[in-house]
Amino acid sequence: CEDTRHSGHMLRKVGIKTPLLSFYEHNTKTRIPQLIELLRNQKSLALISDAGLPGISDPGEMLVSAAKNKGHDVICVPGPCAAITALVSSGLPSNRFCFEGFLPLKTKARKKLLREISEETRTIILYEAPHRLIQLLKELSEFCGEKRPIQVARELTKIHEQQVGSTIGDAIRHFSNHKPLGECTIV
After folding, report:
1. How many whole angstroms separate alpha carbon 36 and alpha carbon 6?
2. Mind listing the pLDDT tens digit for each residue in 52-97?
3. Is residue 65 a contact partner of residue 90, using CB atoms and an 8 Å limit?
4. Do residues 186 and 150 lie in contact, with contact meaning Cβ atoms separated by under 8 Å?
């Protein structure tokens, strides 16, 4: 579980009482071997994310890869995926798209990818943390122009879901006046 407190609460509501282990970005090196050992001993496990689909911009990708490399079957029970949910609700072309996830933080690699995005004809999907959203929007404006169509979706499938956009300039103005909260998906 990304967070055993959230998952535990949900599982208790439906009467499931099973041991929970935390699994998140900072404990993958120690946790993956432990989880693979469970599989090797004929146990089954489920990977639960707090939000979104485990394996998309998530350490679940490493666990799935490790399990498959050791010959274990992996079955995906799909749930909400912010990238696809935001794409479909954006009204932007969905017949061809490119998922980039979180952009690199290092300046050189980030600028290179922003240049590539500015020339891309497919719809682009990005993830960003709320405290870095305005910076990303300003960078997108610099590389793509203020009038490029955009939708910033936040807190998808949750009670405070919000979709902001029409253009990069509109999104910058909105979030300059309303502090971004929650994980953001940019289309």
Report:
1. 23
2. 777 887 888 999 999 999 999 999 887 778 999 999 999 999 999 9
3. no
4. yes
User: CA–CA separation, 112 vs 118, rounded Å?
Assistant: 10
Q: In a 10 Å sphere around its CB, with 0-12 CB exposed, 13-18 middle and 19+ buried, how is residue 163 labelled? A: middle
DSSP code of residue 91: -
Rama region for 44: left / alpha / beta (φ>0; ψ in -120 to 50; rest): beta
Return the amino acid letter for 14: V
Q: What is the pTM of this model?
A: 0.79
Q: 97 - beta bridge partners? A: 123
Nearest CA to 84 out of 70, 74, 98, 73 is that of 98
What are the helix (H) ranges across the chain? 4-13, 28-40, 60-69, 82-90, 107-119, 133-144, 168-177
- Cβ neighbours around 135 below 10 Å, total: 10
Task: Report the C-alpha gap between 84 and 64 in whole angstroms.
Answer: 20
Give 33-42 contacts, CB < 8 A, sequence gap 24+: 35/63, 35/66, 35/67, 36/66, 36/67, 36/70, 36/72, 39/67, 39/70, 39/72, 40/70
